[in-house]
Amino acid sequence: MITNTVVMSARALLGAVTVASMLFAGSAAAKDYTVTVALHVSAQGLNLSQSADARTFYRRLENAAYVACTDGYRVGLDPVDDFKGCYQKALGDAIRSLGAPLVTQIYLATHTLQEAAARGIEVPAQLAAK
Fold first, then answer.
1. C-alpha to C-alpha distance for 113 and 44, rounded to whole angstroms
2. 64-62-130 Cα angle (round to 5)
3. How does DSSP classify residue 54?
4. Is pLDDT of 129 > 80?
5. DSSP 3-state assignment of 7?
6. Which of 28, 65, 68, 93 has its CA 20 to 30 A from that of 78?
């Protein structure tokens, strides 16, 4: 019963996870405008304490970071100049705000502990000891 409450609370939190990045729109009247694109990534139907579901959610985060750093599904937005930096920031910020151990572990499979620390991602103790 307690486990179900924790899982349901985590799911409610996950619905609010966003991937955000800065995109620059085309200039109008010789002025540049900064646009923030925020995408909500749903964890509905996923249990992030299960490895397969955590991988599915991580892929959703990667896709959202990609979209946010390209055209954001918006007409007239130019991609950012530094796609890789934007993508890594968006993905890292999402992982940090999520705080799910298995999703963090998946992130750490392709990123260093230093990269995680630079993004403010808390590394589970058992992973930091390795």
1. 29
2. 145
3. H
4. no
5. helix
6. 93
